[in-house]
């Protein structure tokens, strides 16, 4: 754990295609690197099809194996996505809310050319019962598109705290349209206050003050209005990566602030080895997590970059910064050696 206002420096080694980050510090905690990006686990809602039809499923909790099971049986009378061909290729996807990135999505196989698909598949989550009972199950049906433009066909959301766990039978449920908050992207997860600065190589005079290469400074100040996942509050910390590197060498985190939905971190991280052209291809990913003994719960995050969808000429899904995040990053690029202050909403998408 790092101290308040501590400063950790890492080396950003530039390569044309696969940049990596090496560390000047040997004190980093031993943690598993993120596989891919925690903010990129969602399918885009590109469809304009009206939700219709029903889905048959059952819920169960296996006490022995500590496993939540969703038995997805079948769907009936789904909407037709491709009207010319009269077809839909549906699959079922589930999340546990509000913490869908932590547990990840589960989904069935795709059934082609049918609006009455039969699955008979079990989607499984390894999760403690106490944690499960403060979640909601979001079960949605989607049309699978070869180009990735999947269409939303309907959903149902179940509060697991009030679920009758003695009911293990398959039951039919009507599929509903997306809620207004989901359609408009309203998903309030808190707001992060931070400052960033870029120090170009050769800009501070002679060495040792002058870095041999550029530096990106990230000052995480505080977060307000975090999601509270349990009555005792939230024990939060912030993770940082410079994508495309998600290795241990890129990873840094703040200390944990306990029982506070408005934590003050006051933590600064410095990544060096940046050339000015790297700023177009790299992305600073800051994610906020609730700390628990068994597992950490994802609360929300931001991505600072140009949001071009490309990194060193390669198409990547994590280069998806919002307009606010892009503007913040651009302002830093244009104002060398100056701290740029920002107040950015945390997001799940």
TrEMBL record:
<dbReference type="InterPro" id="IPR043567">
    <property type="entry name" value="SYTL1-5_C2B"/>
</dbReference>
<dbReference type="Pfam" id="PF00168">
    <property type="entry name" value="C2"/>
</dbReference>
<dbReference type="InterPro" id="IPR035892">
    <property type="entry name" value="C2_domain_sf"/>
</dbReference>
<feature type="domain" description="C2">
    <location>
        <begin position="188"/>
        <end position="319"/>
    </location>
</feature>
<dbReference type="GO" id="GO:0070382">
    <property type="term" value="C:exocytic vesicle"/>
</dbReference>
<dbReference type="GO" id="GO:0005886">
    <property type="term" value="C:plasma membrane"/>
</dbReference>
<dbReference type="GO" id="GO:0042043">
    <property type="term" value="F:neurexin family protein binding"/>
</dbReference>
<protein>
    <recommendedName>
        <fullName>Synaptotagmin-like protein 2</fullName>
    </recommendedName>
</protein>
<keyword id="KW-1003">Cell membrane</keyword>
<keyword id="KW-0268">Exocytosis</keyword>
<feature type="domain" description="C2">
    <location>
        <begin position="51"/>
        <end position="173"/>
    </location>
</feature>
<dbReference type="GO" id="GO:0006887">
    <property type="term" value="P:exocytosis"/>
</dbReference>
<dbReference type="InterPro" id="IPR000008">
    <property type="entry name" value="C2_dom"/>
</dbReference>
<keyword id="KW-0472">Membrane</keyword>
<keyword id="KW-0677">Repeat</keyword>
């Amino acid at each position: 754990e790092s101290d308040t206002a501590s400063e950790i420096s890492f080396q950003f080694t530039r390569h044309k295609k696969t940049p990596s980050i090496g560390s000047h510090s040997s004190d980093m905690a031993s943690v598993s690197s993120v596989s891919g990006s925690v903010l990129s686990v969602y399918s885009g809602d590109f469809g304009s099809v009206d939700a219709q039809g029903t889905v048959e499923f059952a819920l169960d909790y296996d006490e022995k194996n500590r496993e939540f099971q969703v038995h997805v049986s079948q769907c009936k009378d789904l909407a037709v996505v491709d009207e010319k061909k009269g077809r839909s290729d549906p699959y079922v996807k589930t999340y546990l809310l509000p913490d869908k990135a932590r547990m990840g999505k589960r989904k069935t196989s795709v059934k082609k050319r049918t609006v009455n698909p039969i699955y008979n598949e079990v989607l499984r989550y390894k999760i403690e019962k106490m944690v499960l009972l403060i979640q909601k199950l979001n079960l949605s049906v989607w049309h699978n598109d070869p180009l990735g433009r999947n269409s939303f066909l309907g959903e149902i959301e179940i509060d697991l705290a009030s679920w009758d766990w003695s009911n293990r039978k398959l039951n039919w449920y009507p599929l509903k349209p997306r809620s207004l908050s989901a359609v408009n992207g309203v998903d309030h997860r808190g707001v992060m206050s931070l400052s960033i600065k870029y120090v170009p190589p050769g800009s501070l005079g002679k060495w040792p003050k002058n870095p041999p290469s550029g530096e990106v400074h990230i000052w995480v100040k505080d977060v307000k209005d975090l999601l509270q996942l349990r009555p005792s509050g939230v024990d939060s910390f912030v993770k940082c990566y410079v994508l495309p590197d998600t290795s241990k060498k890129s990873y840094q985190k703040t200390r944990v602030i306990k029982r506070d939905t408005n934590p003050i971190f006051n933590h600064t991280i410095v990544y060096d080895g940046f050339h000015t052209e790297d700023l177009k291809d790299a992305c600073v990913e800051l994610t906020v997590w609730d700390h628990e003994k068994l597992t950490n719960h994802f609360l929300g995050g931001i991505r600072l970059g140009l949001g071009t969808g490309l990194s060193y000429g390669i198409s990547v899904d994590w280069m998806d910064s919002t307009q606010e995040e892009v503007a913040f990053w651009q302002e830093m690029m244009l104002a060398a050696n100056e701290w740029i202050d920002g107040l950015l909403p945390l997001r799940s998408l």
